[in-house]
Design goal:
alpha+beta, elongated, TM_Gly-Cys-Arg_CS, transmembrane, transmembrane helix, membrane, DUF1049 domain-containing protein
């Protein structure tokens, strides 16, 4: 007999370090979001047919992004349903 462990032997626990690969992308994105907000704090005037809305530029761009993602998701969902 050999002294090799069985194939189904438990692996040693992975390191719980904060710098594991799964945290890199979210951390980079969080930094980018903070920089984006800090760089786009100036108020902008937006005309929505009749009302005029004044809000920070980052908020207007974030709302536009969210609406675009929602429309894209609805179109993909509709296309898959066919």
């Amino acid at each position: 007999m050999t002294d090799t462990p069985p194939r189904n032997a438990a692996r040693p626990p992975a390191s719980k370090a904060w710098y594991q690969g799964r945290w890199v992308l979210p951390a980079v994105l969080a930094v980018l979001v903070i920089v984006f907000i800090l760089e786009n704090r100036d108020p902008v005037t937006i005309r929505l047919l009749i009302p005029v809305v004044i809000m920070p530029q980052w908020a207007a761009l974030t709302i536009t992004l969210a609406l675009g993602l929602l429309i894209g998701a609805l179109l993909v969902r509709r296309r898959r349903a066919r």
